[in-house]
Amino acid sequence: MRELGVKRVLFLVHRGQLARQTKKSYERVFEKSVSMGLVCGGYREYNADYVFATVQTLNRDEHLLQYNKNAFDCIILDEAHHVTADTYQKIMKHFEPKLWLGMTATPDKRDDNIAGKNVYELFNYQIAYEIRLRQAMEDKLLCPFHYFGITDLSIIGDDKAEHDFSIL
């Protein structure tokens, strides 16, 4: 970010816990060179250089209208496959940053509230980096995973509402 001359950043996530974790990671990288704040849950740190917010909070006018359209140089969207949803679109229409950066592990998954639009279209088909699952596994960027199918749910209770999946 420093090399790009970015002064103000909005990092948009879908959970407060993720906003707090991401903020901590950025604090380790940037140390005290920029101020960092949260806009989620009970946090209202609107004036920080780097703001970490949830879509649910920023989507509300009382929070969104704290910012003018050019408030941020860069807006980073986590889980960017949701950008076609009304909640994301409201936020995206409000701002005009120099750079939009969308991150997703599932770019082909989308919320279809915008007819004919998809993640690729909304980001003008500009892909900064792409790696497929097989390549990530071969490059040892991910740990191996295994699928297990459960065919008998009777061991966890008779009533569906009372299933205790933790005993599996």
TrEMBL record:
The keyword Translocase does not apply. Keywords: ATP-binding, Helicase, Hydrolase, Nucleotide-binding. Pfam families: ResIII. GO terms for cellular component: cytosol. Residues 1-125 form the Helicase ATP-binding domain. GO terms for molecular function: ATP binding; DNA binding; helicase activity; hydrolase activity. InterPro entries: Helicase/UvrB_N (IPR006935), Helicase_ATP-bd (IPR014001), Helicase_Restrict-Modif_Enz (IPR050742), P-loop_NTPase (IPR027417). This is DNA/RNA helicase DEAD/DEAH box family. The lineage of its organism: Bacteria, Bacillati, Bacillota, Clostridia, Lachnospirales.
